[in-house]
Automatic annotation (TrEMBL):
The lineage of its organism: Bacteria, Bacillati, Bacillota, Clostridia, Lachnospirales. GO terms for biological process: gluconeogenesis; glyceraldehyde-3-phosphate biosynthetic process; glycerol catabolic process; glycolytic process. Involved in the gluconeogenesis. Catalyzes stereospecifically the conversion of dihydroxyacetone phosphate (DHAP) to D-glyceraldehyde-3-phosphate (G3P). This is Triosephosphate isomerase. It comes from Johnsonella ignava ATCC 51276. Pathway: Carbohydrate biosynthesis; gluconeogenesis; Carbohydrate degradation; glycolysis; D-glyceraldehyde 3-phosphate from glycerone phosphate: step 1/1. It is an enzyme of class 5 (isomerase). It is found in: Cytoplasm.
Amino acid sequence: MRKKIIAGNWKMNKTPAQAIELIKELKPLVADARVDVVFAVPAIDIIPAVKETAGSGIDIGAQNMFYMESGAYTGEVSPEMLTDAGVKYVIIGHSERREYFAETDETVNKKVIKAFEHNLIPIVCCGETLEQREQKIAVDWIRKQVKIAFFNVEKEDAKRAVIAYEPIWAIGTGKTATTAQAQEICSKIRECIAEIYDAQTASSIRIQYGGSVNAGNAAELFAQPDIDGGLVGGASLKADFAKIVNYNK
Ligand code: PEP
């Protein structure tokens, strides 16, 4: 049985002092969660966030990392820096990184491989634009994203990965995919993993839905057989996040 995982993607929000304040507010509210809880915070907030969440059961995630070990890559953060700071998860290939920072399926693949080399668990993002959905090419597009992201990734690593299905048209727009739409794509992603590896890997991997998840729609989305939790943007910055985390209580 897969344990659900609900991750907050704080994006470029919260200074270190504000991060501590938000964690202090949320920590008691998610203390008895029946799901894995992750706060994916800005790089500058990682160290205070790890300190503030110690012993709470909350894991800290990064929102990105580079695929090289170290060197002349001004502005980048390495996987070793993340593990040394106490990070467990790293979001890879968020659509905002693809759109504003030229992230490609190929760089996503390099980062996924590198994350596993350092024992970090990647939350690999995929998702279609509204245009692609209207053209009925969403499934093909997402299958391509997933196949490239997992190219040369070992089966035992893939089993521990998290995939976040995030339709771009639903991110930060208040437009959530219908439960049926989200379930359909998540099941196609699982099928794709079964084709790449096998049925056992497909049934181990966790697949989140992301895109305007809120306290009102979380329970229905997460009750779907192939949706193993959510990647939550806007609603992760307020107390409402605790309601999402506690959707099954
Ligand atoms: C996200 O950024 O991953 C996201 C899903 O954002 P939102 O919940 O705000 O749509």
